[in-house]
Predict the 3D structure of the following.
Amino acid sequence: MLNTISLRHIGYMIIVLKSVLISYFIIQLVFLNPGTATFSFDSTFLIFVIAGFLAQLIDGALGMAYGVSCNSLLLGFGIPPALASASIHTAEVFTTGVSGLSHLLLRNVNRKLLLRLAIPGIAGSALGAFLISEVLDGGLVKPFISAYLLLMGIQIIRKSLKPELEFSEPRKSKLSLLGLAGGFFDAVGGGGWGPIVTTNLIHKGNVPKQTIGTVNTAEFFITFVSTGIFIFFLGVQSWQIILGLIVGGVLASPLGALLAGKINPRLLMRLVGITIAIVSSITIYKAIA
């Protein structure tokens, strides 16, 4: 059955699922909870647009770090951590959807790889979102994930410095486990799908451009599921932040996808490695400081 699913079908699924979420928000705001979305399009709103734009530009080009980048920017602007995390997860459904469609149009997506990652990723995301909503503290898990990713980032940088780069077709082995772990830790740790999955695939020798496009497209489905569970347990907070992040992210998504297809593979590997090493180091420092 999976063999009958084409890239066009995947694009249609993204559009339908985004429409469902938009319809849900409209029903909530107009019919069930009118008057709850009180905000103004002022300079504060512009700050959230800029934060969403920069974070999605990085994520679209490198296949990772939307949540970390966006969270860092919002905390820098004085947004409380819990509010920042909830807003990012909600906005990310829209930004990953546009990013995924952009990568599909630019043919940056490997269909078989996407399906092998997305299906177990959805399962892991659902489990992680439930646990972090009701049981676990995601902050306790982050430092251990970051330590692992720091080592992977260093390995990617080292590999990019070799005289000749060797790329291979995506390997079937352990892809399901990688997707499951990526989805789970993304939901539990407030981010991590891109760093875990993209970093591992590039480290194993997969072509960076196609890997980034595929992982970004799969991320929409992972984020959609986890966001639905977060909304069920925690509700939606601060529409001004969410809308600002959505506007900025949607504007940056096509540009990020275009950059991923234009950047030299060796440079792209170095950027991925450097980004994940820096972000992981900062996370570890904050955890032990």
Summary: The mean pLDDT is 79. Residues 2-288 form one domain. The radius of gyration is 18 Å. The longest helix spans residues 208-234.
